[in-house]
Amino acid sequence: MNTKERIFDASLDLFSKRGYDSVSLREIADEVGIRKSSIYSHYPSKEAILMDIFDYFTNLFEYDELLNSREYSLSGDNEILLENPELFYHNGSEAIKEMFFKERNLKIWKLIFIQMHHNEKIRTFFQNEILEKPLMFWMNFFTILKENEVIRHDANPELLAKEYYSFPIYLLIEICAQYEDIPQSSLDDFFNQAEEHANFLLDCVKVKK
Hints:
Elements: H1 3-18, H2 25-32, H3 36-39, H4 46-63, H5 79-83, H6 85-100, H7 103-115, H8 120-147, H9 157-178, H10 184-205
């Protein structure tokens, strides 16, 4: 890694363990093995490092080829979505799992949960990227299923989206609170439980043929 990448990773490691406000630029420099002044060649401030971390995280979802492929499009002509919404969920879950298994990304999740009540920008990031955008995605998911009579006509897409998405968020908070270094076995269990819950909920509202 080059120096900027080392600063990025050292900062993320310290932020995720101790919180953003408890870490100084001098401590980051010591962790990297450089002078504090050298950081300014790459980042103008500690906050700039934090924003770079969240830009990286946002781009994972925005530019990932698999997640943005035709297979995951929310449209009435997506055969997988209409004929097998469980498979649609499973394939998306597998793509997210691949991201989660990277240590850097797990540390960012922990940082978000630690800092969202202490930093306005992190709280805004959490609301927009972790809550609102995914909820809108799943609301559109259930709306398409309802319009195509895959789920019952009396189903409420907004409530279903909240129920569908809230359980994985709970599981994620639980494992972030439980572990400093999250073991892979816990992540496997996280994805298995989330998918089991999703399939159960979908089965409750599907039109029985």
